[in-house]
Design brief:
single chain; about 25% strand; globular
Length: about 220
């Protein structure tokens, strides 16, 4: 999770690129940036996504969430035909927001909404519906023999660790990206807020977005 400009999409791309270097195929599912935009972003860091796709090491899929139905089914089909070890869904915020738009017609509706209604037909608040939808999404993703990274937008001053304020309770781990300002200086930091099944560093860690991608700096900003 992080605000605009913190490098969420860059981190996702780098996660897949580094995995490919270690022999892990990667799947990038985008609900915001088109394939052309992602390729352009990657080129600025020296990553040739076209070549990686042609070599069968990477697959990129863009879904327009306003027009796409059967989102989970399409993700599962992509996974089962490609069998990646690393998966990115960028972004969960766009998907969740689109699912909860009240004026979407039934013809343009999402299968996830119908899943929630079939499980519990009792009228529910948006938060309960969102929780059902997100639980169903996570349950589906956990069927994959892969590690999945999802992104969520955060606004300054917003409570919770994700835009929907639900995902952080469902996901196994939460990494927060910050843009910090001290006086006239600005810098970025990240913090692992949650990571199930393992002990982890809880301090803020500085990072920079450089021509080679995201680089972790050794300096510690604050102690938790």
């Amino acid at each position: 999770s992080g605000g605009a400009g913190t490098g969420k999409s860059t981190l996702c791309l780098q996660y897949l690129i580094n995995g490919i270097k270690m022999g892990d195929k990667g799947l990038y599912i985008s609900t915001e940036q088109t394939r052309k935009e992602l390729v352009r972003t990657a080129q600025s860091f020296g990553w040739d996504l076209d070549k990686l796709e042609n070599d069968g090491k990477l697959r990129i899929a863009y879904f327009d969430v306003v027009e796409t139905d059967g989102f989970l089914e399409k993700i599962y089909e992509l996974y089962s035909t490609f069998l990646p070890k690393r998966v990115v869904v960028d972004s969960l915020t766009t998907l969740a927001d689109s699912l909860l738009v009240s004026n979407v017609s039934e013809k343009q509706g999402f299968s996830l909404v119908r899943v929630a209604e079939s499980v519990s037909p009792i009228p529910q608040s948006e938060r309960i519906i969102a929780k059902n939808l997100l639980y169903h999404l996570m349950k589906k993703l956990r069927l994959f023999d892969s590690t999945t990274l999802l992104t969520s937008e955060l606004i300054d001053g917003q409570q919770g660790l994700s835009a929907d304020q639900i995902s952080e309770f469902i996901c196994d781990g939460v990494l927060i990206l910050h843009n910090l300002g001290v006086g006239s200086a600005e810098f970025r930091s990240m913090q692992i807020m949650k990571m199930r099944y393992t002990s982890h560093d809880k301090d803020y860690v500085m990072y920079e977005i450089e021509p080679s991608g995201i680089t972790i700096k050794k300096e510690e900003i604050f102690k938790s």
